[in-house]
Amino acid sequence: MALVVQKFGGTSVGNIERIKNVANRVINTVENGDQVVVVVSAMGKSTDELVALAKGVTEKPSKREMDMLLSTGEQVTISILAMALQERGYDTVSLTGWQAGIITEACHSNARIVNFEKEKITNYLTTGKIVIVAGFQGVTESGEITTLGRGGSDTTAVALAAGLKADRCDIFTDVTGVFTTDPRVVKEARKLSSISYDEMLELANLGAGVLHPRAVEFAKNFQVKLTVRSSMVEEEGTMIEEEASVEENLVVRGLAFESNVTKISVCGMPNNISGLSNLFTTLAANNINVDIIIQNVIDSENTNISFSINSEKLTETLEVLEGNRSVLLYEEIQHETGLAKVSIVGSGMISNPGVAGIMFKSLSDVGILIKMVSTSEIKVSTVIDQNEMVKAVETLHKEFKLDEIKVLQR
Ligand code: ASP
Ligand code: MG
Fold it and tell me: Which Pfam family would be a valid example here (predicted)?
C-alpha cells in the first residue's frame, strides 16, 4: 500500500462537475489500494473574487484580515469534496490548514511553513479515512491564520508529502505537465517527461506558473517524488526529480520569459567603496525589488550602475532615487521601459561550454539587441526589447532543438 498526496488546483475544482471528477480520481487511487491525502485549492477564480471583494471596501486591507478572508476559499472546496466522497460511500474528513497541523512563521500573506505536526493526519489515515486538506493556509504558533502566497497550495501538498514520507506527490492541474516553454505563446512547445528540481526551481522563479517555487524547494530538500499532470485527461505528466533522466542530451530544457521590465541607469556615481551598497540598501529599504545588476566603471572617479525592475515600480523607484540624490551623489538617472527578460534553463550548461555564446549569436542573427545579461550555473537571462520577446523565444526554442523532443512515455 502506497501513501499518495494528490493536489488539485483551482481549475480542476472549478465547478461541481469537476469536483465530482476529482472525487472519481481519488476513488480510483483508493480502489487501487493506496492511502490518499488530498490537497485542494479554492474553486476556480474564487481567490481573485475574494481579493476583489476586499478592494470594494479598502485599497489597503490589513494583511491579517486578508488572510482571514482568502483562507475561506479553500475551506469551501474541502467540505464540498468531502461531501462528494461521502455521497459515494467513502469515509473521509476535511481539515483546514491549522487542523492539519501546518505551522507557519508569523508573517501574513506569504508565510513559510516551519513545522508540520503530522499526528492528526496519520491518525485519520490509520482509521482508513481519506484526508482532505485545505491548501495555501496554515497557522502561527500563537494561533493566527496565515496564507502561503498565491499559488501556495502546491507548497502545502509537497510539505505534507515530505512530512508524511509519502511515496509520491501528484500535482493535478489544467495542463498536462511542464512544457519547454509556454504553449500558449510558442505552439512548438513540448511537454517534458522529466526535469530536475534545480531546473524547475529556476523556471518557477522566472515565472513559469506551473509550480509554486517554494513547493519545488521543499521537494528538492526532502527528495519528494513529484509529478505534474492533468486532472482532465489521462496522460503521463512530467516527473520532477534529482536528475532529469529522459531527453538527457538536452543542454537547455526550458525557456522562460516575462515582459514589463524596465532598465534604470544611475550614471556618474562616485567610484568608491560604499557606492554600490548605498544604492542597493536604499532601494531595499523602500521595498524595491531589483533583478539584474550591471556595474560599469568609467574611470577611477566615476561609475555607472544599471539595474532592472518590474515596470510597475518605475515611478516609485525614480522617486526614491531623486529623494536620495544628496546621499547617492549621482549625476543623472536614465531609464528605458518596454523591455522583456528571456531566459534559457538547463543543467547541461554546467558541462557544456559556450551555451551563452550560442544564445547571443542566435539572437543577434535575427537582429535582436541584448541590453542586459545575467547568469547562474544553469541559467542565462537576457533583457531585450519587449516587441521582440516572442521572436526571441521562438528562435531560441528552435536553436536548442526543443521542438524536436519526442514525447516519450515512461
Ligand atoms: N487559491 C490560492 C490562489 O489562488 C492558492 C492556490 O490556488 O494555490 O493563489
Ligand atoms: Mg498553481
Answer: AA_kinase
pTM for the whole thing? 0.91
Q: Tell me, what's the pLDDT at 248? A: 57
Ligand 2 centre from 212 Cα, in Å?
A: 6
Instruction: Please name the residues in contact with 321: beta carbons below 8 A apart, sequence gap of 6 or more.
Output: 264, 266, 328, 330, 333
Q: Of the ranges 182-191, 203-212, 363-372, which is most confident?
A: 363-372
**Cα-Cα-Cα-Cα dihedral sign, residues 305, 306, 310, 313:** positive
Q: What is the mean pLDDT of the chain?
A: 95
Ligand number, closest to the Cα atom of 47:
1
Å from CA of 206 to ligand 1 middle: 18
Is 173 labelled as part of a ligand binding site?
yes
Enumerate the domain spans of the chain.
3-174
| Cβ of 71 less than 6 Å from ligand 1 | no
Nearest one of 370, 368, 343, 359 to 400, comparing CA atoms:
359
pLDDT in tens, 279-332: 999 999 998 999 999 999 999 899 999 999 999 999 999 999 999 999 999 999
Written as nine digits, the cell of 46 is 474564487
What is the 3-class SS of 36-101, one letter each residue? EEEEECCCCCHHHHHHHHHHCCCCCCCHHHHHHHHHHHHHHHHHHHHHHHHHCCCCEEEECCCCCC
| Residue from 39, 153, 172 whose mutation best tests the ligand 1 pocket (most atoms within 8 A of CB) | 153
Query: Is the pLDDT assigned to residue 409 strictly greater than 50?
Result: no
CB of residue 42 inside a 6 A radius of ligand 1: yes
- CB of 238 shorter than 6 A to ligand 1: no
140 class by beta-carbon count within 10 Å (0-12 exposed, 13-18 middle, 19+ buried)? middle
CA 144 to chain CA centroid, nearest Å: 25
Pick the closest to residue 372 from 333, 341, 334 (CA basis): 341
Cell of 150: 498565491
Fold of 3-174: Carbamate kinase (3.40.1160)
Q: Express each pLDDT in 56-77 by its tens digit.
A: 999 999 999 999 999 999 999 9
